[in-house]
Amino acid sequence: MATGNISDASLKYFEEKKIKSLLEEAMHDLLLDLPQDPLTYLLERFDTPTSLRLIVSGPPGSGKGTQCDLLARAFGLKHISVGDILRQAATEETERGKKIALFVTKGTLVPDDLFVNIVIEKLREAEQSHKGWLLDGFPRTRAQAIYLQKAGISPQRFFYIDVSDEISSKRLLSRRGDATADKTNRGGSDRVPAERKVSVRMDDTPDVIGTRLKYFAARKNELVECYAPFYVHIDGSLDVESVFEEIKIQVTSLDVFVQGHHE
User: Fold this and answer.
1) Are 121 and 196 in contact, with CB atoms under 8 Å apart?
2) Biased-composition ranges for Basic and acidic residues (predicted)?
3) pLDDT at 144 over 90
């Protein structure tokens, strides 16, 4: 940032009061809505707390879904799970559904043109209603991140839940058909929602799991690079409660944006 003749005291004030973040938030909303009267719009937006926008990423089996469920309930966020969107679409007897199913059953990436617009639409709905959102498992590639950026959609935090391939594989294989798998493998928490306790999925087979992990690892670095300013590393090998507490600490550090959604 060019500082010109700004004094050290002014720069300190700028940082302490999070002026840069406030301006970035205002510009994000302005470019999203493109109002006819931008000045009045900005005045109104400055008077309204900004909603949370979070992305949770990590390899298959890292516990993204469980953490997103907990975060959505704790902060009143709209949970947008791209994995759930794709698996639901894969069951539909439509041309698009059948195409998506071919990729999901093999554990390979679904072409962007089949689903990215659906994700962007859901994010826009959440933002226009001024309800915070939580994006689960997307983007997975640089190209997908660029789609979001071009749509004027960016997070305040990008959480990367990191686990080894060994832990990922063990969790994914254990949860097949086991109604208590999530509770056992993710630290024994009773806070995991009931709908997450049973997970029999078409992409949880040994061969497909290996393919999914391979595809994710190949694109991990480019994805982290895209969201470097918002990146937060989380140790996903810990129990579910510890992981959740670490993420929650990071979210509540954004308290200038959070309005009455704490537990």
Assistant:
1) no
2) 175-194
3) yes
CB-based contact 174:185 (threshold 8 Å): yes
Residues ≥6 apart with Cβ < 8 Å to 51: 126, 127, 130, 131, 132, 133, 257
3-class secondary-structure state, position 116: helix
The C-alpha atoms of residue 53 and residue 127 are separated, in whole angstroms, by 9
Sign of the dihedral defined by the CA atoms of residues 181, 185, 191, 192, in that order: negative
Q: What is the pTM of this model?
A: 0.69
Structure tokens at 22: 């406030």
State residue 56's pLDDT score: 96
C-alpha to C-alpha distances, 182 to 121, 134, 170, 175, nearest whole angstrom:
30, 20, 12, 7
Residues 54-86 have pLDDT tens digits of: 999 999 889 999 999 999 999 989 999 998 888
User: What are the residues whose beta carbons fall under 8 Å from the beta carbon of 47, sequence distance 6 or more?
Assistant: none
Task: Tell me the domains of the chain and their CATH numbers.
Answer: 55-178+201-256 (3.40.50.300)
96-140, pLDDT tens digit by residue?
A: 899 999 988 887 888 898 899 889 988 988 887 777 899 998 998
Instruction: Pull the structure tokens for residue 172.
Output: 């994914």
Residue 49: per-residue pLDDT: 60
* Both tokens assigned to 28: 């994000």
Q: How far apart are the first and last CA of the chain?
A: 37
Rounded to an integer, what distance in angstroms lies between the CA atom of residue 20 and that of residue 23?
5
Phi-psi region of 132 (alpha: psi -120 to 50; beta: other; left: phi over 0): beta
The residues pairing with 188 across neighbouring beta strands, listed in sequence order, are none
How much is the CA Rg of the chain, to the nearest whole Å? Answer: 20
DSSP state, residue 175? T
